[in-house]
Design brief:
elongated; single chain; five-stranded antiparallel sheet; alpha+beta; 511 residues
């Protein structure tokens, strides 16, 4: 009999490996009883389950379930259990009537969800709800009474704020949603909830402004998130790599931010936002290359200053990407491009250096990455010490020992400093990887290799898309808008329309 049952399950349901996402199937098709709930959460020492009787001198059994630590037990006792037990409303009522009264003011804590199956009730208990089961009526009431032990809203740590709001996202979804709604007081701000993860059951929310965001982009984002079938959404990669158009590209295709003001500014421009419970960052789509160069302070500064700083970032991006490879190409293959006095200085500095120019540049780039990684991973006090010691050893000591020429140190230092001007760390990391590849291309065939490598790099960027929007918009898109808006900041009174590439139903943001 068991073999026949297994064959039928594999035929109509499928094996565990080939089965669709379990969120779309009943996980617990058993009857909604206290015994079944206790069986689901067996071997969980922090799971609390007990029975009370509703109403003074009443015999209506009510089962209470919650996880200790996820639920504020003081609120449960004062606003749920005490009025339920002592109230005379429940005297003489049957179980169905008692459940109805409890959901209409019989308890002092009214935000609740009603469940009639084990799937939804087990989800509520796992997410920090206090659940009351009226077993004879076959209904359960779940009250969102989460514990207040969460990180308080504080200043952003990864994105420095010069002129702007100093409230950053935290690891709690509800708090992050409240930060957004405190800045956008409009019923047009819509939220689409969903759940990701077989085991983690992480809540994910899509935010957009109705009438401003492209409806097709919203539908596509919902479809991509719902198609994620993984065990848990714990890190940002668990979400980001499954919804981007080109997951094999090292360049970021979603705008990430921990600043609520930047998040809201992009929602107003017509983008959609994604917030996941447990991640202190927000995602914005579509993400284009020009958006990773901009910062919220551009709108807070005078347009002339903001335009100059934006142009400086583009110049810095070019220098950090091409300068090491350009130096390798010129010093190795094209000596005629170097001025005579500079050439004599380079020859004098390299006279006793035993390594080639390419080996020096690659070694210094690797040493620079090692120092940066060590500074990031170690505690702050130790990290600063490592950076100082590393700079002295790699810089001064290596030059004095004739291991590295001073010109190479200057080239790598300039490339490193200009790389720090890139506002987005994901973009900066992708540029550092590309910088190594361009140095190797220049080592192989000089300026020709550098030109080919740079051309392949630009071609690759031009082929990327983010939710149907060209990655290099407006530099390489037929209807991407004006390039001048990407490299400068226009006066706000002249920026009356949103980006064309976002395909927003409402094109204007002001009169």
């Amino acid at each position: 009999m068991k073999k026949i049952t297994d064959i039928l399950k594999k035929t109509f349901i499928g094996s565990e490996e080939s089965r669709p996402h379990p969120l779309k199937l009943p996980l617990y098709p058993s009857e909604l009883t206290a015994e079944n709930i206790s069986a689901i959460f067996s071997d969980c020492f922090d799971f609390k389950a007990f029975k009370i009787f509703a109403g003074a001198n009443s015999s209506i059994p009510v089962s209470v379930f919650f996880f200790d630590g996820l639920v504020d037990t003081a609120v449960v006792s004062e606003e749920i259990i005490e009025p339920l037990v002592r109230s005379e409303l429940f005297v003489g009522c049957d179980t169905s009537r008692a459940a109805e009264l409890a959901s209409h003011g019989g308890v002092y804590y009214l935000p609740f969800k009603e469940s009639r199956d084990l799937d939804s009730l087990s989800d509520d208990i796992s997410n920090g709800f206090c659940c009351l089961l009226f077993e004879e009526a076959g209904v359960a009431l779940s009250f969102d009474i989460k514990s207040k032990t969460s990180r308080a809203v504080s200043n952003p740590t990864e994105e420095k704020v010069v002129k702007g709001a100093k409230d950053a996202f935290v690891e709690t979804l509800n708090i992050n949603l409240s930060l957004v709604r405190k800045k956008l007081h409009t019923p047009k701000l819509k939220t689409i909830p969903t759940v990701v993860g077989r085991q983690s059951r992480t809540r994910v929310c899509i935010l957009y402004l109705d009438g401003i965001a492209d409806p097709e982009t919203v539908k596509e984002a919902k479809r991509r998130i719902d198609s994620i079938d993984i065990d848990g959404l714990i890190s940002s990669a668990n979400l980001e790599e499954y919804i981007v158009d080109f997951p094999n590209s090292s360049f970021p295709q979603l705008i990430t931010t921990e600043r609520s003001d930047k998040f809201c500014m992009n929602l107003l421009e017509g983008r959609i936002g994604i917030i996941a419970d447990g991640l202190p960052i927000g995602y914005l789509a579509p993400g284009t290359f020009s958006q990773f160069i901009k910062v919220p302070e551009d709108n807070a500064s005078h347009f002339i200053v903001a335009s100059a700083l934006t142009l400086l970032r583009y110049l810095s991006l070019t220098i950090t990407l091409l300068l090491p490879a350009f130096y390798v190409a010129v010093a190795t293959f094209h000596h005629e491009m170097i001025p005579t006095k500079l050439m004599l200085s380079i020859i004098a500095s390299k006279q006793y250096v035993p390594f080639s120019t390419a080996a020096e540049v690659l070694g210094m780039l690797l040493a620079f990455e090692l120092l940066q990684e060590a500074g990031l991973r170690l505690p702050n006090s130790v990290g600063q010490t490592i950076s100082i010691i590393g700079a002295l050893i790699v810089g001064q000591s290596a030059v004095e020992a004739k291991v590295i020429s001073p010109v190479v140190v200057i080239v790598i230092a300039v490339a490193g400093v200009t790389g720090y001007t890139i506002p987005n760390q994901d973009l900066a990391s992708a540029l550092r990887v590309t910088r190594f590849l361009l140095v190797i291309a220049a080592l192989i065939s000089g300026m020709y290799g550098l030109a080919v490598g740079a051309s392949v790099f630009l071609y690759r960027l031009c082929t990327l898309e983010s939710f149907g929007v060209a990655y290099m918009t407006p530099f390489a898109a037929a209807h991407g808008g004006k390039i001048s808006k990407a490299i400068t900041r226009w006066p706000l009174r002249l920026s009356k329309k949103r980006e064309k590439a976002l395909n927003t139903p409402n094109k204007r943001n002001q009169k």
